[in-house]
Amino acid sequence: MNYNLIKMSKKHILLVSILTTSFVVGFPRQIYAGLNNYEILQQSGIVKGKVIDQNEDPVIGATVRVKGESRGTVTDLNGEFVLNNVNHGELEVSYVGYKTQVISFKSGSPLKVIMKEDAKSINEVVVVGYGTQKKANLTGAVSSVSVADLGDRPITNASTLLQGTASGVYALQKSGQPGADGAVINIRGVGTLNNSDPLVIIDGFPGNMSDVDASEISSVSVLKDAASASIYGNRAANGVILITTKKGASGKMNISYSGYYGVQEATALPKTLNSYQYTTMYNEACQNMGMSNKYSDDVIAKYKAGNDPMYPNNNYFDIYYHTANMQNHRFNISGGSENLQYAFMLGYLDQDGILVDTNYRKTDFRSNVDAFFLDKKLRVTTRLSGNVGTQWQPTDLWSTIWYSTLAPIFPLKATDGQWMAVNGERNYYGEAEEGSMTKNKRYNFNGQIEGEYKFLDGFSLQLTYGYNVEQGDKDAVNANVTLENADGSMKSLASNLTVTNSTNTQTLLTGLLKYDHKFGKHTIGVMAGYSEEYFRWKWNSGYRSGYVNNTQWELNLGDASSQTNNSGDYDLGLRSYFGRLNYSYDDKYLFEANIRRDGSSRFADGHKWGNFPSFSAGWIISEENFMQATKSWLDMLKIRASWGKLGNQNINSYYVGSDILSAGQNYSLGGTLQSGVAVKSLTNKNTTWETTTQTDLGLDIGFRNGINVSMDYFVKKTNDILMQTPIPWTMGNLSAPYVNAGKVQNKGIEATVGYNKIFSNGLKLKTSANISHIVNKVTDLNGASPIINSPTAVVEGYAINSFYGYVQDGIYQLSDFTWQNNSDPNIAYANRQYKLKSGVTSISNYTAQPGDIKYKDLDGDGVVDMDHDRKVIGKQFPDVSYAFSCNLEWKNFDFNMFWQGVAGIDGYTYYEIATCFSGFANMGDWWLDRWTPTNPSNKYPRLTTDGVRNNIHSTFYMEDASYLRLKNIEIGYTFDKKFVRALGGCKVRLYANIQNALTFTNYKGFDPEKETSQTRAEAYPQTRIYTFGVNVNF
Amino acid sequence: MMVFCGCTSDLLDRSPLDTLSPGSFYENETQCKMGLMGVYASIPPTETVAFWYQLDFMSDNNYCQDSWQGSKEFGEWTQNASSWGSSAKWKQDYQTIVRANTFIANMSTAKASDDVKKQMDAEAQFLRAYAYSDLITYFGDVPLIMGTQTLDSAKVSRTAKEKVLDAIINDLDAAATVLPNSYSGSNVGRATKGAALTLKCKTLLYNQKWDDAAAAAKAVMDLGVYNLYPDYAGLFDEANENNEEVIFDIQYIKNSQSQSWPSARLSFVDWPTPNVTADIINDYYMTNGLAITDSKSGYQDQDPYKNRDPRMAASIVLPGSHTASGTFIPANDQVPCGARPRKYADINGTDSYNYSLNTIVLRYADVLLMRAEALIESGNTGQEVYDLIDQVRARVNMPKIENVEGTGLSQEQLRKILRHERRVEFFMEGTRYPDMLRWKDESLVHDVYGYVTSKLSDPTNPSKWVFETEKKETRKFDSTKGWLWPIPQVEMQNNKNLKQNPGY
Questions:
Q1: How far is A790 from chain B (nearest CA, A)?
Q2: Tens digit of pLDDT for each residue in B188-198?
């Protein structure tokens, strides 16, 4: 579990090795009193000593063994050890991140062992599928995320810590909404048209990253290539994320607290028009449409004067969004003895959202206990964790965000204090304030028990059983609200309540048999395993309307005659057999093979089972004799190659092999509802999982000067993608059967560079950078290309879900037209009857006028039309994603900076503020630069109120969404020893931190980081968070 | 090991928990009826653009400026093969057809009494004919699918419209012989003999089979089941559902089966922005039966709603009239034309998203006017034609043709009167647009005019209002498209055997 610690400073390691579990990995300063006065007992057959590092700080938890024997011990809190019944020989002292020391001893002589940091990190251990492996011996492509380097970022959803921290991993935070701020994670590109979420395994249990707190994580491994992931078989095609939580270690009990307080604000909200601009420009649009003005001069004057509350200038972004507070508190206790080690964690988060009435509160706990019996041959571990999170949001969240884009002219409240029906319609701000809120309470509990027994020489048997229960209680309330109309009349919105209860359960049973042996220069490891999993999802819902007050929301208090209910129920079973063989010769030549045989209940008989093999090999060239000359500057040079097959069975159906007669096809007769059934989908019983074949070539280089480089090139081809190849609608508008048909390819290179140095003045520098370039391409759609779902489409030869539409070719200018009297320039603009000059491209959707958007005529027939002139115009995946982090420590100060960016990605925003007079929405201020006869813009068209002109999907609404962002900047100070003594030995660190501090982008309006499917101006904005925090170690 | 999982059967052998299996269905009458209801369930439109009122938006009666709703481009004849309206209609009709086909196939082996099977078969045949009748109206030739299909047989080609028409008439004749005249209780709303005959009449009329259409209409009249409901406005009131004029309607109930895009919202300021054009408002006659353009009509252009055909106020939210949110003031509203539909809307404004007013598909007034039209078109200009039209006008106290236009009118004169009568009688009932298609009258596709809404603003003093109209939207018929809709582009892609209609 400690593989990642090497990336921390040495003092971090000291701390972590004591606490093992704690959050305090960011503490830069040692907390131990000096190393004076260790006593050495002169006693026969006993050897005592102390292990220290180059700074003379004790190394705690180092393994001390008598060379050639199995006897040994571990250093205590003071770095000291005692061995009995030994007289002389050699001691082997080892510790993660340090070079193993071998020293001769004689009983009675005190020993002082000085450990030296091992730049090669030869002992660094990486968590892999069903086990761990020395990083040096890895043959697959595994990224280990350096959790400790992230500082104390206010990470409220653990999935976001993957953003920019591992090459080849593209993580994008979905939104800034409390409780819904997880990241979409794509590992090495999207390889499927179905669910592309990676498999997440938390302490051996498939789960959800939101159920682990970032501070509880001791390590994250991202299994990227087939060699490392194929041990997870038919769920591994999207990559695998392995999360290990912190454990206890023998030593003194450690208690710690950490907490922060933060303030959030939106990173970016568009600048929009004021009421005067809006009304005058609306009139301009009316004139352009040949209609009379909508707003009279009187009315415009009132908006301009701004002293009549019914003629306001409301910036609705300011009404719906505000700064919001958050706080987070965590307690940890860890420690243990030789035979019992424990770690207990408890946390509380309270986060208000920046949008009106959004909030999330979560309490979580985790308990990891390891007990050892039978001379440590038997280990029994329990892992219990749970959390209860309550999320509040306006019941109609979508409309609430939508209303934040409203034009400034609508009053929010009448002068008598009544909420106004905005444009005679709704008032989602007022409604939320009156209680139209949804409370979503979610309980999650995970419990596991695991036993491992070591027998004979090198064998071990491990059994794990566990289950996960997720209970959801959702109350969606629409309160009784009275709104006032513009004419002073009132309108009542009726109340209702929808209650949804869901119970999702998941059980897991895993058995592993392992054998490790070393003979001569040969090292072999064998593992065989079995696992079975069962999932069940079940929900019931009930509805009633007509509540008599706005305070009691219980189903039984609603109008009984309005009640309806519904339910759903589905399940899934998985069974697997798997095995792995590792072989290395002389620690230079490495080989690994994996196989998994997986069965899934999703598919029909004869199509349930699949085999997923992989092979990989590595060669540590730097260990060869002929490389001796390079030893002075080159630490390590390794090349890796792997090939393997992975599967994906995660499609939007649990029973693809079953014929289904859908219930709920009801009809009413004579005022009575009649139950009806109908076949709604066509079944294909031959459906099976998708297969991804991945080849990876890797290179790892370590230089003596502290620079480490790791590079990979990969080709990932997914065949048999489960897609619903369209069938004729004349078959009855049935949903098409899943067919294993599509093909997608991802090719890429990724690189990570690290540089660590301790300067002579004590300044410690740690930097890391990574960059990935991935090309995603749909290579076959079984004749169904293009599958258009405007504004995106899946098209052969292009990236998945590319933007699709017309290509803007400037704006129609006056010079493109003729008009009356031989185009007499003296005729007023408004009175001209424009005719397109021959040879100028026309548009089938409307009759072009000067100032309208001009599109490219792709097929050259002189007319732009939907069926012939649309194409792929942009893509939702970046060409390049990159990140750079830098950690500095100097004396009591520490500093952390983390930059993250993407380049070569497009974003799309239409409707609302992006589109000219869309509904009741305001417009972005860039529309001030619209085309007029005197401002012949070639970018923004003239103003119209015409949906046909404005709602055409084209490059006009698409923009370069590349950005570079200072994701986090943090500065901390740790109080020194004197101060610490005054506080009774507590170690105290204070820090301040800004998340999403700075963004460089050309993307206008909203934040460029938004979910790719979010093509309307409807994203819940990302947040900038200013935090101030404290870490205390008692 | 299964013990740990708590599974009772094999872990990998899972079958659906919350859905039924078609393999073991149709075992009794109840199950058969559930299958039949699944066919009926396909009749209510679900996609916005497929709602009957969107058809009116495509016609000269109405206009919807929200292009996303799909009707705007059809009104302008700028629709293309990717247009939503075309795919929504195609999908829904074939869904109904295939569900009916599947049901009929399953009924042949179902375990139920022969009488029940015959009756249910007949209903399925009616619903299948209903869908095909709709398809040929908009698309012309369409694939005729009357049995079950496999993926291999699914790449169908288009069948000549005449052949489809034969199949429709076969289905309807068969249904008419079996179906009862009426139902009671919780069977009200199922297809009747009258429904089959009326649909037969309509389909024949739409396809210029004048004599057969006239005969079918007569057969409905001779059933003696139907009458005109005395109160025109009340005909569309939820309290009067299933009245004596209703021949077939789409049935809704509150909460569990309400309209998916509630027509109640038509009267609300927010949704779905439906306009009534100045053209239709001006087309309602004065109560004396004269057009407002007639110098003797007594029409006053600044008091335009006085002494007008009562069907106008019953069908339209006119400037200054009452709605759920008070007096309708065009300047405060989003509809550019300054008038909204009242028919099928919810003027009282209660629970408007949970709206259960049945949509009338076939009603008796249509039977009378269809017979009149069939007679006129077949050259019969006798007294029966006058009587038929006069019956419809009499219900709203509009004068007889004889008293206004006189007697002995030519076929051309009567055709004009008949077409006008259809327009004002069936406003907002989805009738005007298919009438335009079948009459092939290009003059009906023209620019949209509406009120200058800013001149209809002062709520305190409507007497100061100025009624003036202006152009709101350009519409121009595209003759290259003929009068047919495009086969959906996606369907063309799904099935290479389909040939596109001209002009697309």
A1: 11
A2: 999 999 999 99
